[in-house]
Amino acid sequence: MSRPPVGTVAGRFVHPLAWWLWALGLVYAAVRTTNPLLLGLLALAVCYVVAARRAITGTSRTYRLYCWAAIATVAVCMIVQVSVADGGRSSGGLLAAFCFGARIAVVILCVGAANALVSPLRLFGSSRLLMVLVRLPAAVGQVRRARRMRGIRFGRRPLLLPAALAEARARTRIVDASLQARGHARLSHRWGLAEWAVLAAGTATAVCFALASAAGLTPDPWALEAPTVPALAALGVLCAVLPAHLTPAPPAARAARSLRTKAAG
């Protein structure tokens, strides 16, 4: 089956930067709370979005590694609390270690979700300015070495930054052409409704958790009784799940759905 043309509805992906900004919003929400129930709901929301909207690529298959890394982080925090810390077997110490590890685990899941939903190569290919900034330090070093070999002294040479920018832009054009030749071309030049929906979902999640933390609505994580879910934090979790329903399905999922429809008919 041939790949659909760029710009068509069937071949359209959500802009990579939108997914990464959504993930950063969830990371901010995770670090604003220490409630294990809210952290667990955030983790489930992230996993649900990845399961619903990831494409079948090499980077998307590695999300299970991030899940195992998140579980291992919580386990290591619990083991360190039990074996090293004073009074590690107390209920308060175990709960504190679990909450600390859960926050790091949710951050790992959010970063892994962004990596699974969009390839890092597609992220760099979607923004030429980002590629230039990434290659600018190496370009500065190359320009300095070239001028040192030519014997150009500091007082007689022009400014270093314009030459380094020109070198970085030239290398970016070369890399951009190689990415397009390997199928990593920019598939979405303009931000549409799906991109703004993903960005709004991540921002709303971060705002809801920030307001809940500022207003003191998040329950005390050191208490042993079952915590209650504040309305603002619950709204933030709901916003985190919305990209699974407001963005177009990946092409592989659409093709499989059409095949199942034809087989049923």
For the terminal residues, how far apart are their CA atoms? 22 Å
Q: What general form does the structure show?
A: globular
Backbone CA Rg: 23 Å
Order of helices and strands: HHHHHHHHHHH
Strand content: under 5%
Tell me, rounded to a whole number, the average pLDDT. Answer: 76
The portion of residues assigned to helices is: 55-70%
Quick overview:
The protein is an all-alpha fold and 265 residues long. It contains eleven helices and no strands. Helix 3 packs antiparallel against helix 4 and helix 6 crosses helix 7.
Q: Which terms would index this structure?
A:
disordered C terminus; disordered N terminus; mainly alpha; 11 helices; 265 residues
What does this structure look like?
The chain has 265 residues and is an all-alpha fold. It has two domains: 180 residues, no CATH class; 64 residues. The chain is built from eleven helices and no strands. Helix 1 runs parallel beside helix 8. The longest helix has 27 residues. The protein is globular and about 70 Å long. The N terminus and C terminus are likely disordered.
Secondary structure layout:
Elements: H1 16-31, H2 36-53, H3 63-83, H4 91-117, H5 120-126, H6 128-149, H7 160-181, H8 193-214, H9 231-241, H10 243-246, H11 251-264
Helix pairs in contact: 1-4, 1-8, 2-4, 2-9, 3-4, 6-7, 8-9
